Write a sequence for this structure.
């Protein structure tokens, strides 16, 4: 879903917790009965996972990360052979492929791949080979507590230049390209701008906002989330997560800011060197079974790229404008694309200053 880069932010605790199970190890026979998935926390429906485990007589072990940077560090430290399947977003998929961290996917061996809409496969190709099966897509918007915000936000500048009552009550993503890209969008520029004067304006906007931000760590999506408890009043959120938080507190609201947003696509990719390739391929096929894909998507409130799953879904799901942004929102939104190395270094440096 997400365009983070190389600077590891505030997720050290989560990173170490994720590393512990890998360091402890298992008996060799046990490892062959285990599928290891590197993924965002709470990004797979537990009932769906249990169904796969029961059908195959295996155990799924999830290793979670809280940023793209944390995921990158895990792969660097443990090697791509430590993970059978990884959740990787469209901007990082070719990077991982170039690093030889991923194995090309033969869709002829994934029968259910025929249910996928072809437009979501375009960004998964690198050097003529497919490196990811589309999992979810969506956008970024503003989540807020309607009982804690005096004037409901309408645009990104309500977040970057907040009202006085929101001082210290904002939560931002320390995801380099997304955070910087949204700052550019707030100013009326492209999320992919590389113009020096526009980058400078976005840098100033972010540094001015810093005093108002309580945390740059992505929110927990559970009943203890700061947005649920009221510790945070406004936050950058992925659209499906906003709906999940509404389940814990119905005063949580979400808007698509008027300036537009950044779009994302997440993929399920195969780690290079996995000893359980056949099992991993079976899992990819299982997740694209229309009924399974539908159940998983409706549980997590994210948009499925599986057209047959969408047909089977409930009207409440497929007609939800937060899950499926309306056309006017999509027209103003952009997918984050790679930028020149010098631009990326500048963005990384700015975000690093925000995290100090």
């Amino acid at each position: 879903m997400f365009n983070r880069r190389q600077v590891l932010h505030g997720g050290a605790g989560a990173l170490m917790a994720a590393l512990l199970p890998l360091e402890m190890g298992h008996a060799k026979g046990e490892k062959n009965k285990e599928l290891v998935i590197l993924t965002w926390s709470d990004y797979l429906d537990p009932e769906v996972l249990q169904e796969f485990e029961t059908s195959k007589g295996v155990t799924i072990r999830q290793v979670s990360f809280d940023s793209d940077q944390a995921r990158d560090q895990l792969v660097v430290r443990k090697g791509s052979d430590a993970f059978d399947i990884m959740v990787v977003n469209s901007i990082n998929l070719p990077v991982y492929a170039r690093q030889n961290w991923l194995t090309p996917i033969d869709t002829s061996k994934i029968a259910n791949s025929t249910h996928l809409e072809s437009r979501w496969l375009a960004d998964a190709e690198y050097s003529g080979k497919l490196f990811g099966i589309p999992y979810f897509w969506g956008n970024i918007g503003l989540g807020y507590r309607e009982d804690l915000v005096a004037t409901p936000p309408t645009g990104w500048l309500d977040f970057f230049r907040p009202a006085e009552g929101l001082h210290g009550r904002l939560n931002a993503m320390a995801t380099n390209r997304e955070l910087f890209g949204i700052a550019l969008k707030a100013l009326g520029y492209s999320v992919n701008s590389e113009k020096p004067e526009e980058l400078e304006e976005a840098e100033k906007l972010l540094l001015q906002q810093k005093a108002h931000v309580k945390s740059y760590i992505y929110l927990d999506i559970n009943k203890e989330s700061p947005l649920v408890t009221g510790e945070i009043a406004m936050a950058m959120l992925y659209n499906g997560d906003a709906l999940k938080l509404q389940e814990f507190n119905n005063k949580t609201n979400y808007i698509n800011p008027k300036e537009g947003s950044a779009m994302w696509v997440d993929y399920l990719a195969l780690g290079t060197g996995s000893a359980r390739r056949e099992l991993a391929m079976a899992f990819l096929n299982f997740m694209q079974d229309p009924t399974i894909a539908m159940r998983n998507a409706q549980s997590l409130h994210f948009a499925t790229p599986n057209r047959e799953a969408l047909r089977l879904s409930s009207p409440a799901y497929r007609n939800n404008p937060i899950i499926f942004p309306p056309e006017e929102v999509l027209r103003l939104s952009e997918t984050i694309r790679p930028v020149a190395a010098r631009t990326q270094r500048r963005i990384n440096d700015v975000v690093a200053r925000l995290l100090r």
